[in-house]
TrEMBL record:
Residues 1-10 have a biased composition (Basic and acidic residues). InterPro entries: BTB/POZ_dom (IPR000210), SKP1/BTB/POZ_sf (IPR011333). Residues 1-32 are annotated as: Disordered. The lineage of its organism: Eukaryota, Fungi, Dikarya, Ascomycota, Pezizomycotina. This is BTB domain-containing protein. It holds the Pfam family BTB.
Length: 384
């Protein structure tokens, strides 16, 4: 899959000469006028951008670039006068190069979320988080709280006013720069709102498919695994009680006189109808039996978990009065607790779901490491 173009990569590049039949070619930018190395960046996004830089500065800015470009290095780039970075966003790359060469004007400007995500991706990829550390609070803070960054040195980030809907790219920013608390909160919100499609992909509230470029792939895998396991438990529990109701012998409301058959029929209709009403809001209903069929049934429930929980609310106890059809005192099927027991088990599944830790230990370790890079704050993470 071709890399996704950010807004900054979609902008038309300046060019002194443009052919009518060809897109304008970006001119060479002298990041360092007397530079001894030419970088060709972003060919996968369109016309490549060319940056003249200092090889020694590149080596000092990043351990990754040092290994790649050092004159005594083992890579072929060590002796090349021109080095290509075809799959990197050229504008994000340019910003990092400017910081490395002590040009800070653009780094002091606020970025939109998609552009910031591109910078975070490259900083993580090339180990330049320490290089840009002085600018990160100014980039990130506006998305975390309503305080200006300069007034927010002691702000405990217990919540973020940035909702996950439409802002999924901030997960990459938080992961790349070490904002573990924001990453956790947005991941938890995403877990309850994400749905799936027939291809098994994660789909956001706005119908956007989550891309592994902007969302850590292990997070997407974890989202799918947790959601899939929970929905399967719901389906298995549902069919256990569906079969019980199907047996038609669960009525505990007995008349003092006359036939109890009508009571049993009403009880059966009550419980079966409530369960069908709950399940048909999520998927089609059929009398599945095997484990394999239940796994398949759970895979066909594409709704997000918030909607799943709402649908389960249809299953509850309900007073059913036959007084108008019988001369005896009115009876109630509230004592016929099949649906109540089912709802109790469903509630337990939902409660267990809310206790699941969506953030994996590897992600915590990574973010803790990113937070510490050139961070003068003595805290281990953004949570203190």
């Amino acid at each position: 899959m071709a890399p996704r173009k950010s807004e900054i990569s979609k902008r038309k590049a300046n060019s002194s000469v443009a052919d009518d039949d060809e897109p304008p070619q970006p001119s060479t930018k002298d990041v360092y006028r007397n530079g001894d190395l030419m970088l060709v960046v972003g060919e996968d996004f369109g016309p490549a951008h060319r940056f003249r830089v200092s090889r020694d500065t590149m080596c000092m800015a990043s351990t990754v670039w040092r290994a790649m470009l050092s004159r005594d290095g083992q890579f072929s780039e060590a002796t090349q006068k021109e080095v290509a970075f075809p799959d990197d966003d050229p504008h994000a790359f340019y910003l990092i190069l400017q910081v490395a060469h002590l040009q800070f004007a653009k780094a002091l400007q606020q970025m939109n979320l998609e552009d910031l995500a591109e910078v975070a991706i490259l900083c993580d990829k090339y180990d330049t988080v320490a290089l840009v550390r002085p600018f990160i609070p100014g980039w990130v803070q506006p998305f975390l709280c309503e305080h200006p960054a300069v007034d927010c040195d002691d702000c405990e980030i217990e919540e973020t006013h940035l909702g996950v809907a439409g802002n999924e790219e901030f997960l990459t920013v938080a992961w790349g720069f070490g904002y573990s608390n924001a990453f956790r909160m947005l991941s938890e919100e995403l877990l309850t709102t994400v749905s799936t499609n027939k291809l098994g992909q994660c789909v956001t509230q706005h119908g956007k498919i989550l891309e592994t470029k902007y969302i850590p792939p292990e997070l997407i895998e974890n989202l799918l695994a947790i959601r899939g396991a929970t929905v399967l438990k719901i389906v298995q529990t549902y069919y256990k009680f569906f079969d019980k109701v199907w047996d038609k012998d669960n009525c505990k409301a007995r008349p003092n006189q006359g036939s109890s058959k009508m009571y049993r029929d009403c009880c059966h209709a009550l419980h079966l109808g409530r369960q069908i009403e709950a399940y048909e809001t999520l998927s089609r209903i059929n009398t599945l039996r095997t484990d394999e069929e239940m796994v398949a049934a759970s895979a066909e429930i594409y709704a997000n978990f918030h909607d799943v929980g709402n649908a389960l609310g249809f299953i509850d106890g309900m007073i059913f009065i036959e007084g108008s059809r019988h001369p005896m005192a009115a009876g109630s099927h509230a004592v016929c607790d099949v649906s109540n027991i089912l709802m109790h088990e469903m509630d337990q599944i939902i409660d267990d779901f809310w206790t699941i830790d969506i953030v994996q230990e590897a992600d915590r370790t990574h973010m803790k490491s990113q937070w510490k890079k050139a961070n003068l704050d003595t805290k281990d993470s953004d949570t203190g």
